Amino acid sequence: MSRTPRSLLDVATEALLASPGASLTEVAAAAGVSRTTLHRHYPTRQALLLAVAEHSVDRVERAYADAGLDAAGEDAEAALRRLLTALIPLGPQLEFVHRERSLDDEHGLHARFDALDDLVSGLVRRGQQAGVLRADLPAWWLVSSLNGAVYGAWEMIDLGRLAPLDAPGLLLTTLLDGIGR
Amino acid sequence: MSRTPRSLLDVATEALLASPGASLTEVAAAAGVSRTTLHRHYPTRQALLLAVAEHSVDRVERAYADAGLDAAGEDAEAALRRLLTALIPLGPQLEFVHRERSLDDEHGLHARFDALDDLVSGLVRRGQQAGVLRADLPAWWLVSSLNGAVYGAWEMIDLGRLAPLDAPGLLLTTLLDGIGR
DNA sequence: GCCAGATGGAACAGAGTTGTTTCAAACAGA
DNA sequence: TCTGTTTGAAACAACTCTGTTCCATCTGGC
User: Fold this and answer.
1) At B140, phi and psi to the nearest 5?
2) Looking at the DSSP assignment, which residues form a beta bridge with residue A180?
3) Would you tell me which residues have their CB within 7 A of strand C?
4) Distance CA A54, CA A3 (A)
5) Residue B159: DSSP 8-state
């Protein structure tokens, strides 16, 4: 069992994020390797898609870890801002995992996302207890709103309407303060 | 030019929303017709997908029309609630159009959605001028937040976590009042 | 130089789907 | 009943992509 060919996976990921319907021939060409070699590392197309997905979730998990959600006694809003800031640039990864239909029944992927949701859920609950977040709404709903907002923000960035650097602040005020009044 | 076979399209839509990767044979079987007949109405798979998508957008447009966004001199919040209530049940349609990659470069579809966004944009701007909605955020961002929130709410419904009847109220308070405080 | 491992190129078969055609049968309206 | 239309069944060719195999080549370490 050879080591994971990290750089090959990186460039294959990039190619597949850009055009997810690409054939293996195209992916191999984009990665600068022959289809044979690509096939040696990832025996089937599904294996490649899954590897790309796992690789993407790796980065998402790292973003969560880097945000340090469980910093004790700290402002939940600051932690939230760090998380959003780290998550927004991962829009392509999130979109790939979300839209690729053949990943729908990959149980392991969903489990990893669920674990991340649980992390945020903990942060949300602490925010609720600290009086920073509304306590009259269930935590899972706030988590869902958060996830949806991140995705929506990235879509606007992708369309060129939203400047990446503006996104975290805009997201945070929209989420926390709402659009009313 | 025969009339549009509405009922066939309806059931084909239902089948494709349920399993978008289904082969034409499966779609035809689900629709209770032969593959030949299906192929007579929609010569290519892409034509069928596009018809299903257009049919879905038809329903979305009708939801917008029924919500009567341009009721003059009325509370923007009430109009917004009607729109959200009408839109949430169309989650499957929205998901199909959003996730089906072969629809990405169907220019006409995007134009129709853009037109709907413009409608909401008008409502939002009126709400901003009336002091019901925040005026310090661009209208397109509020529209984007709205769309994203609808989609997110339907995902929670689809997962069985959110009761459909609870969705509009939950959405409205989350959007308008935010999750902070 | 030698060798093990990895790579590239090429060709191949197989599967699955799609799009097409033909013909017979059912159907609906005049 | 006659007729024109619609449908179903079947078979067909074509295509694309995938997965596999074989062999020549290159590379890096010993």
Assistant:
1) -60, -30
2) B133
3) A 2, 5, 32-37, 40-41; B 23-25, 35-36, 39, 43-46
4) 16
5) T
H or E element that contains A116: helix A107-129
Mean pLDDT for the stretch of residues A67-80: 83
Q: What nucleotides of chain C have any atom within 7 angstroms of a protein Cβ? A: 5-10, 16-22
State the nearest residue by CA to the C1' of C8. Answer: A34
Q: What is d(CA B80, CA B71) in angstroms, rounded to the nearest whole number?
A: 11
Phi, psi of B75, deg, nearest 5: -60, 125
CA angle B152, B155, B159 (to 5 degrees): 145
Average pLDDT over residues A7-11: 88
Positive or negative, the CA dihedral B165, B172, A135, A86 is positive
Closest CA to A170 of B124, B169, B144, B113: B144
B141 and A170 within 8 Å at the Cβ level: the answer is: yes
pLDDT tens figures, A16-25: 999 999 999 9
Model pLDDT for residues B161-178, shown as the tens digit of each residue = 999 999 999 999 999 999
> Please, what are the domains in chain B?
1-43 (1.10.10), 54-177 (1.10.357.10)
- Minimum-distance CB partner of A144 among B102, B131, B152: B152
